[in-house]
Write a structure and sequence with these properties.
By secondary structure, the chain is mainly α. Helix content is about 80%, strand content about 0%.
Length: about 80
Amino acid sequence: MYKRQLGNVLRDAAIVPALDEINHRKWWPYIDAVVDVLAGDQTGVARRAAVRLAVDFCTWQTLTAAGLDDTAAARLVSDMVAAD
């Protein structure tokens, strides 16, 4: 249920100004902070981009829609980030 709700919020932000405002004030700064922590001292653009992709909700939607379960999706993005 949480995944569906978050997906709806992210989808609808483009057409609901209040959601867009909340996302810009709360959600995206939170995601940026998560990327900062996970990327650590690795400040390379490719590394940060890989981490950002790994934590993006749409990435998980895409991977699970392709048939991966959460464990396989996590392994895939972990390998991707580590490969940088």
